[in-house]
Amino acid sequence: MRPSGRARDQLRPIVLETDVNKYAEGSCLARFGDTHVLCTASLIDAVPPWLRNSGRGWVTAEYGMLPRSTDSRVDREAARGKQSGRTQEIQRLIGRALRAVTDLTGFGERQIKLDCDVLQADGGTRTAAITGAYVALHHCFQHMQRFGAVKAIPLREPVAAVSCGLYEGEAVLDLDYAEDSRAQADANFVLTASGGIVEVQATAEQDPFSRAQYDLLLELAEAGVRDLVTHQRAALGLD
């Protein structure tokens, strides 16, 4: 029995809410159970220097956790004077995931910066951030389309992410903190709507796991991402 009582292939309750920030060109509050991540997309009418005069745009991301997003207060990284290695790794992952499905030639020499701020953490913050950031990015492109800045949405297909793991010897979907902290293995899968693999991060926390166990985790992730894409499309009014 999972601590939450969920079935092994059951996601936490998923809520993807758009228009949660009045200033950002795109925004989404992603709730994966008790993990809540605010994702905003900001349109910047310039690109990094190395992309000037290339005809290409850029999508990048920043990630952070608020001081009381966890059960004890953590200092803001700005107060410490530098980002942790974990923060840098996660925000690069988010950026790679979104660029993988974006036509960077489709919105001119502009940059879209995705800010993913963890309001509350209960496991799976990076997967919630990627899933919500896609919605915020699409929402931003919808805004640009309404004002004639783009003719078509320059996204090839949705991308979403979900965690899976081996908990008490069984493959389970979408780990919360109670499971993640005790899992024998855990993995984060970033997949496209068509099943394409963008990135996989998998780690044995105890004994090595087998290819057969990995295949079970991938099958769970594929089903989970299909459900997440349905939530993304509904949030964007595409159903």
UniProtKB/TrEMBL annotation:
Pfam families the record matches: RNase_PH, RNase_PH_C
Record carries keyword Translocase: no
Domain annotation Exoribonuclease phosphorolytic: ranges: 10-140, 158-223
UniProt xrefs under SUPFAM superfamilies: Ribonuclease PH domain 2-like, Ribosomal protein S5 domain 2-like
Keyword set, alphabetical order: RNA-binding, rRNA processing, tRNA processing, tRNA-binding
Stretches of the chain forming a coiled coil according to its record: none
Keyword tRNA-binding: yes
Protein family according to the UniProt entry: Belongs to the RNase PH family.
Name of the protein described by the UniProt record: Rph protein
Native source species: Symbiodinium necroappetens
Lineage: Eukaryota, Sar, Alveolata, Dinophyceae, Suessiales
